[in-house]
């Protein structure tokens, strides 16, 4: 291999000291095991899991600390990269305001994973995404997962975050302080997803503030929680856009980089023991990216936090901040160990960059199978295979050995570090959660709720109805038709609005429930209560407009009974929409099913068909339109009421065919059924939502 730059020829003495003969390397069965590069490392011993600690950054960022003089190689790297000054400066930029975020964590967490194999179902069988990945990251360490796109970084991070339910397609073990994932861990685990999941209409400050209110313990006052949100805001350089809306594809808001920082801030707020981040620096300029990584580095150094992140193309400055690096290639691990030793390992197996280059670029090239001479697809595949085999022979046995030692340690001191010690309770009470979620939901949906689209729709329909049935008090059959139209309109409109509620919230609900932010019941009540103003005010305005225009009975009693019956209809119809939306969680499917349901309910309501075949006539009893129509008729007509049906004769209203099917009787039965349906449909929606959450589909 050709000449290399100063940092690339550097061979850390620490690494040399740790390297020992590979006596326990398993013989390889693969054709690649005899490859000269796989056999190249007779004396190399890569940095073991527990030995990595924070020796590299300690000596790098805090001169004199870490007991003793810096090694020659480390000094050289510092001089070359100049990162010591940079990291310290950046970390100091945070200021005192954010000190609370950097206070120590209550329970340091060691995350270990061993031989993780993960498969997913695809059309033609199964696809193996992770093919036996092992490693660990301890308190005080920053782990970076590198690899080409599609190599399985996000999948591994998601598994490590306990966000995939255990299935037969996941084998191997993932432990936290030697124990499997448990619910209380959620509240001390921060997880930043690759895609930002945020409410579009809240401002940056509102987003952080509501998260602080929900996630921070009730031992802190609201003022203290707000101060914590302010500190994070300051820390992440978001002060300039604090009052800007987050935005979405449809609404212009803050930039992608700012949005990413808000997502990170939401997780930093809780002062997590274990922080997992999926590409926290993607889309950021190099200064902000460096600031974020140095902040994460500082989080590991103060208070014993454990941080793991996936990252694309970190600069060399950032690369040397990582205590550990895991390099993946097509789901296979090809390197796990100290970041500072990665190049040495590859040098040892005869992969050396020909020019001085960013180490992460070099590692990514290798993970893609690109080394100096290999260009064709076959050659790239062969390079990857050699790297996989080299890892299997040289690194895997050592990592496994270390993981076994760690697991033994945890078994011995298990009770001390048990996650069971962590409190199971929620951070806030049910009412607090309800109140905060209601306020947040009203803020988020204030634009939607009384949008001009809604208002115009309702007012135009009301005016048209008023004109068509203008002063029709003496035309009873027309008025029965009017009541049926009102009943159908308010049975249909809220249902179609309701189907949007949960499918639109799915990602946010999954994210927030995964971090144990609130109870499902408080979220459900808050969201449905948040819809009430729109659900109740608009129909009230509608009734106010049409009531006197159409000449309905002028007594207050009749008005209020009609209004209340319409409001109950609206709530039941909304429940149908919520239930269909929550069960299907797909807007297209939900609107199709909703139209079918509504059509059946409407037709069975008694107005259109009076003589249904007996085998299908039962449908009317499950149709809420049937009962709501009865209540609306009863609001205007008493059971024995008559009207002038021509030739100076009077007929019973109850004898009009469309009224007869429904009947002017049993008002209480209709009221009871309507309230029962109101609860029933919401219950269906609630049960359907229970499947949304950590590791659920
Ligand atoms: N549910 C799934 N069904 C089918 N394939 C899947 C599924 N989940 C992940 N994959 C595939 O697994 C591979 C790894 O995906 P993953 O998202 O973990 O990659 P990544 O390393 O995070 O990529 P990137 O850097 O682009 O984010 C990809 O090829 C992806 O298409
Ligand atoms: Mg990814």
From TrEMBL:
It is a multi-pass membrane protein. Belongs to the ABC transporter superfamily. ABCG family. Eye pigment precursor importer (TC 3.A.1.204) subfamily. It comes from the Eukaryota. Pfam families: ABC2_membrane, ABC2_membrane_7, ABC_tran. Residues 25-72 are annotated as: Disordered. InterPro entries: AAA+_ATPase (IPR003593), ABC2_TM (IPR013525), ABC_transporter-like_ATP-bd (IPR003439), ABC_transporter-like_CS (IPR017871), ABCG_dom (IPR043926), ABCG_transporters (IPR050352), P-loop_NTPase (IPR027417). Keywords: ATP-binding, Membrane, Nucleotide-binding, Transmembrane, Transmembrane helix, Transport. Residues 111-355 form the ABC transporter domain. GO terms for molecular function: ABC-type transporter activity; ATP binding; ATP hydrolysis activity. This is ABC transporter domain-containing protein. One of its GO terms (cellular component) is plasma membrane. The chain crosses the membrane at residues 450-470, 482-502, 523-548, 560-584, 596-619, 667-689. It is found in: Membrane. Gene3D superfamilies: P-loop containing nucleotide triphosphate hydrolases (3.40.50.300).
């Amino acid at each position: 291999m050709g000449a290399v730059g100063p940092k690339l020829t550097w061979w850390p003495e620490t690494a040399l000291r740790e390297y020992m003969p590979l006596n326990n390397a398993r013989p390889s069965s693969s054709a690649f095991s005899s490859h000269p590069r796989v056999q190249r490392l007779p004396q190399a011993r890569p940095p073991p899991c527990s030995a990595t600690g924070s020796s590299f950054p300690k000596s790098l960022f805090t001169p004199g600390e870490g007991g003793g003089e810096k090694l020659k190689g480390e000094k050289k790297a510092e001089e070359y990269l100049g990162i010591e000054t940079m990291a310290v400066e950046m970390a100091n930029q945070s200021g005192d305001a954010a000190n609370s975020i950097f206070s120590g964590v209550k329970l340091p967490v060691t995350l270990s994973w061993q031989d993780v194999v993960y498969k997913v179902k695809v059309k033609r069988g199964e696809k193996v995404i992770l093919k036996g990945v092992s490693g660990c990251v301890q308190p005080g360490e920053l782990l970076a997962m590198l690899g080409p796109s599609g190599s399985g970084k996000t999948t591994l991070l998601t598994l490590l975050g306990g966000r995939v339910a255990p299935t037969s397609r996941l084998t191997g073990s993932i432990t936290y302080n030697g124990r499997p994932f448990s619910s209380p861990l959620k509240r001390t685990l921060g997880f930043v997803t690759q895609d930002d999941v945020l409410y579009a209409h809240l401002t940056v400050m509102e987003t952080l503030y509501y998260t602080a209110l929900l996630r921070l313990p009730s031992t802190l006052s609201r003022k203290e929680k707000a101060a914590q949100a302010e500190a994070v805001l300051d820390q992440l350089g978001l002060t300039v856009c604090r009052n800007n809306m987050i935005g979405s594809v449809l609404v212009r808001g803050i930039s992608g980089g700012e949005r990413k920082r808000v997502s990170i801030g939401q997780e930093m707020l809780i002062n997590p023991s274990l922080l997992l981040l999926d590409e926290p620096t993607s889309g950021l300029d190099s200064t902000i990216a460096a600031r974020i990584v140095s902040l994460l580095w500082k989080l590991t150094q103060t208070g014993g936090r454990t941080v793991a992140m996936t990252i694309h193309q970190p600069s060399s400055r950032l690369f040397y901040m990582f205590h550990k690096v895991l390099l993946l290639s097509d789901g296979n691990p090809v390197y796990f160990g100290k970041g500072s030793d990665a190049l040495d390992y590859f040098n040892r197996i005869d992969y050396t960059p020909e020019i001085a280059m960013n180490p992460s670029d070099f590692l990514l090239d290798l993970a893609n199978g690109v080394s100096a001479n290999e260009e064709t697809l076959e050659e790239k595949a062969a390079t990857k295979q050699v790297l996989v085999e080299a890892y299997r022979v040289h690194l895997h046995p050592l990592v496994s050995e270390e993981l076994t030692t760690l697991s033994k340690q945890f078994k011995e001191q298990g009770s001390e570090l048990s996650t069971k010690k962590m409190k199971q309770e929620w951070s806030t009470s049910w009412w607090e959660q309800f109140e905060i979620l209601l306020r947040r939901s009203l803020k988020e949906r204030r634009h939607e709720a009384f949008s001009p689209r809604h208002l115009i729709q309702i007012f135009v329909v009301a005016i048209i109805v008023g004109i068509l049935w203008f002063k029709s008090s003496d035309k009873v059959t027309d008025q029965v038709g009017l009541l049926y139209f009102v009943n159908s309109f308010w049975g249909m409109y809220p249902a179609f609005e309701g189907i949007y509620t949960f499918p639109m919230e799915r990602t946010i609900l999954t994210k927030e429930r995964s971090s144990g932010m609130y109870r499902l019941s408080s979220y459900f009540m808050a969201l449905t209560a948040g819809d009430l103003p729109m659900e109740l005010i608009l129909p009230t305005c509608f009734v106010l407009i049409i009531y006197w225009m159409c000449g309905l009975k002028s007594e207050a009693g009749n008005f209020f009974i009609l209004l209340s019956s319409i409001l109950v209809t609206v709530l039941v119809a909304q429940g149908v929409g919520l239930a269909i939306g929550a069960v299907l969680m797909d807007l297209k499917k939900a609107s199709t099913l909703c139209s079918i349901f509504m059509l059946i309910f409407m037709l069975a309501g008694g107005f259109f068909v009076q003589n249904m075949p007996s085998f299908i006539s039962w449908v009317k009893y499950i149709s809420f339109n049937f009962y709501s129509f009865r209540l609306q008729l009863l609001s205007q007509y008493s059971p024995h009421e008559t009207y002038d049906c021509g030739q100076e004769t009077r007929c019973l209203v109850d004898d009009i065919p469309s009224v007869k099917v429904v009947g002017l009787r049993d008002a209480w039965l209709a009221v009871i059924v309507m309230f029962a349906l109101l609860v029933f449909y919401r219950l269906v929606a609630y049960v359907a939502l229970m499947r949304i959450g950590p590791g659920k589909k």
